[in-house]
Specification:
- This protein is mainly beta.
- It folds into two domains: 405 residues, no CATH class; 53 residues, no CATH class.
- It is built from five helices and 24 strands.
- The longest helix is centred in the first third of the chain and has 18 residues.
- 42% of the residues are buried.
Length: 484
């Protein structure tokens, strides 16, 4: 990045409205400065996030009876296996101890009783341990058409054709914007040094902006994801307020959980009162809560890893598998807030840089109580990768007999969810030929993806209905509070 551009951006951040801090997706790195350097707060390097882990206790859940669909065929006539030694193929007594292929030993009578029970159940479904090799016994009732319909709105999202570029803004140019906008209450106008046209509008008493998104994807009976984000701006004759929030979570085996919630709110009033709030929680546990008043310049990075396990029984035909399925990952947020009251230059401002992120994968483990059967899991699901990058701010200027609210906001998000596959298997140790294996496809999907701008704007709003004496009322300002 050219040195002049670095200086321009640093000057812009320290003096008034807004800059959007880059938020790398899928990880929890230290907060970066706009020029790519390690970010600092009054000369102190912000340390990388710590190793905090939030774990939920294992919860016993029940899979819905209609969640699994078996691939039934015409029934096969049942015929019991003769009681033979697996090694010698000679008849043995029920009390004789035999050794299975996995090295385990058991009485022949117990082994063949279990083997014949499985054979009879498989025969009813149209399968047989005598002839089967690798068989897909069924799959979860995920509706591909429903998933494809859910993907359609995401496919229409995109990055803006002409988003506001941060390197076109600095405090001097914003002052030029305010001066150039005097008398303009509609349309667009150009300001020297700014390529992006500035929009001028008029509102009677206040300028209010609210933009949000929400996606609910997948099938909650097996695996689903919900994410949402919001940004709000409010400016009136008394001051300005900027806020943003985001949340993400999912559902496994019909059990929903909010993995991360994060929010920030910054305000600055003409009587000299600045205030900032920041909060982040993972699995309902608060990682960080900040609420301070004064002229603020605060930068925070917080993150945590998490583990959310569930335990259930999933039938794979005649095989009742004990399955632990859960979500593991990391969540966090980066915050930078600034409130400013400047009586000499007749403005107040409130800015927030906000970067929440969430990364989670689905894992599974399976077992079975039968000695003659081996059970397990193959595959992995990327549950969700989400990052949101919001830079929002307002500046209230009250010079020249007019109230002007300067708005600059850049908000975008990245989302990838529910890609991959997970299948369960059960392999039976038979006394002849190769051991047959039976599988159940629990989840298989190519995934959802979105990269979109939520709202990009460079605007100057003229406020009406303002008593001039109140506009010119003196303001006060405090010191600077800096925290890490």
């Amino acid at each position: 990045m050219p040195r002049s551009l670095k200086s321009l951006l640093r000057h812009w951040l320290s003096s008034l409205c807004i800059a959007a801090a880059a938020v790398p997706a899928f990880a929890a790195p230290p907060l970066k400065g706009l020029d790519g350097s390690r970010a600092t707060v009054k000369g102190t390097v912000v340390a990388p996030p710590g190793g905090q882990v939030v774990r939920m206790p294992v919860k016993q859940v029940q899979m819905q009876p209609n969640a699994i669909q078996l691939n039934k065929r015409a029934a096969v006539a049942y015929k019991a296996f003769d009681m033979l030694d697996p090694k010698t193929k000679q008849p043995v007594s029920a009390d004789a101890v035999i050794t299975l292929d996995n090295g385990k030993q058991m009485k022949a009578g117990e082994y063949y009783a279990e083997l014949n029970r499985l054979e009879k159940s498989l025969n009813a479904l149209g399968y047989s341990l005598r002839t089967d090799k690798k068989v897909n016994l069924g799959q979860s009732r995920i509706n591909p058409a429903s998933f494809a319909k859910q993907a359609q709105p995401l496919a229409r999202l995109r990055k803006g054709a002409a988003p506001v570029q941060m390197n076109q803004i600095n405090s001097q140019l914003m002052t030029s914007v305010a001066k150039s906008s005097m008398g303009k209450t509609s349309g667009t106008f150009q300001v020297q040094g700014i390529a992006t046209p500035v929009t001028a509008t008029f509102v009677p008493t206040e300028h209010r902006v609210e933009k949000s998104f929400e996606h609910i994807l997948g099938d909650p009976s097996i695996a689903s994801v919900h994410v949402r984000g919001n940004v709000k701006l409010l400016g009136n004759k008394d001051g300005v307020n900027t806020s943003a929030s985001a949340a993400g979570g999912g559902s496994l085996i019909s059990n929903s959980v909010d993995l991360v919630r994060a929010s920030t709110e910054v305000s600055s009033t003409r009587n000299g009162q600045g205030r900032a709030k920041m909060n982040i929680s993972v699995l309902g546990q608060t990682l960080y809560n900040f609420d301070q008043s004064g002229n603020l310049n605060t930068q925070i990075t917080k993150s945590s890893s998490f583990d959310v396990p569930f335990k259930t029984t999933i039938p794979v035909g005649p095989f009742a598998l004990s399955v632990t399925v859960g979500a593991k990952g990391a969540a966090g947020a980066q915050f930078k807030v600034i409130t400013t009251v400047d009586g000499a230059n007749e403005y107040v401002s409130a800015t927030a840089n906000f970067g929440p992120y969430l990364n989670a994968k689905v894992y599974a483990q399976a077992g079975i109580s039968l000695l003659i059967v081996e059970a397990g899991v193959r595959g992995e699901i990327n549950l969700v990768d989400m990052s949101m990058n919001v830079g929002g701010g307002l500046m209230l200027r009250y010079g020249g007999g007019e109230l002007k609210v300067c708005e600059l906001i850049i908000s975008s998000y990245h989302l990838e969810a529910l890609s991959g596959s997970i299948s369960l298997y059960a392999k039976v140790y038979v006394p002849f030929a190769d051991d047959p294996e039976y599988t159940l496809n629990l989840f298989n999907w190519t995934g959802f993806r979105a990269d979109a701008d939520l709202y990009n704007s460079l605007k100057v709003v003229t406020l009406g209905s303002r008593p001039l004496d109140d506009v010119r009322a003196p303001i006060t300002g405090g010191g600077v509070l800096t925290t890490r």
